């Protein structure tokens, strides 16, 4: 009698094993396929208007000259907060700010792009940019189709809260006191 059920049990066991294997393979296929499909990340826009591609090649020399003018202007408008001399070996913070200006040099938007997480330094960087607005007018050939120019600048902070901008930063000290 046990011999009569043995083929039936073997068939059921084979079907269960096959079903289990197929289910596991299907789950793996779904997981692998789901992981393999990556959608490009949309860049963060700093304004509510869609970004427009420049209509002509960017003049990198003119852009660099304008960045220097902007940095000098920010430093002049925040002279009491500017670090003169050699920055310490281990900076308190580095804050990269992304901002957009219009054709008149008015800062339309600004945001911390990269930071080490020091909220005081982040606030100081954004406030110094606001105090410097309006910035020098950008050359018309640097503006995009919207009449805007997107820029970034690095604020380098010492422990005392004073900063230098990357465009004019002195070499850092070599040793930690």
Notable features of this structure?
177 residues; Fusion Protein Consisting Of Minor Coat Protein, Glycine Rich Linker, Tola, And A His Tag, Chain: A, Domain 2; 4-stranded antiparallel sheet; 18% strand
Brief overview:
The chain is of the alpha+beta class.
CATH topological fold name of the largest domain: Fusion Protein Consisting Of Minor Coat Protein, Glycine Rich Linker, Tola, And A His Tag, Chain: A, Domain 2
- Please tell me what the overall shape is: elongated
Number of extended strands = 4
CATH C-level category of the largest domain: Alpha Beta
Question: Pairing-aware structural class of the strands and helices?
Answer: alpha+beta
Mean pLDDT: 80
Characterize the largest beta sheet: strand count, sense, and whether it forms a barrel.
4 strands, antiparallel
Describe the 3D structure.
The chain contains 3 helices and 4 strands, in the order ααββαββ. The chain folds into 2 domains: 29 residues; 109 residues, Fusion Protein Consisting Of Minor Coat Protein, Glycine Rich Linker, Tola, And A His Tag, Chain: A, Domain 2, CATH 3.30.1150. It has 177 residues and is of the alpha+beta class. The chain has a 4-stranded antiparallel sheet, covered by helices on one side. The relative contact order is 0.18. The N and C termini lie far apart (90 Å). The longest helix has 35 residues. It is elongated.
């Amino acid at each position: 009698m046990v011999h009569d059920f043995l083929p039936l049990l073997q068939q059921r066991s084979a079907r269960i094993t096959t079903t289990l294997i197929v289910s596991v393979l299907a789950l793996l296929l779904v997981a692998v396929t789901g992981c393999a499909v990556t959608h490009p990340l949309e860049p963060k826009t700093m304004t509510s208007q869609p970004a427009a591609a420049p209509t002509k090649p960017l003049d990198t020399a003119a852009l660099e000259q304008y960045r220097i003018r902007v940095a000098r202007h920010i430093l002049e408008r925040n002279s009491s907060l500017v670090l003169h001399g050699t920055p310490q070996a281990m900076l308190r913070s580095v804050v990269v700010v992304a901002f957009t200006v219009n054709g008149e040099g008015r800062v339309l938007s600004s945001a911390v792009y990269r930071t080490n997480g020091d909220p005081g330094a982040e606030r100081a960087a954004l406030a110094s940019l606001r105090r410097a607005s309006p910035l020098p007018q950008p050359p018309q050939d640097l503006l995009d189709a919207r009449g805007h120019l997107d820029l970034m600048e690095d604020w380098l902070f010492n422990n005392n809260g004073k900063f230098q901008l990357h465009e004019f930063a002195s070499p850092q000290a070599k040793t930690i006191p």
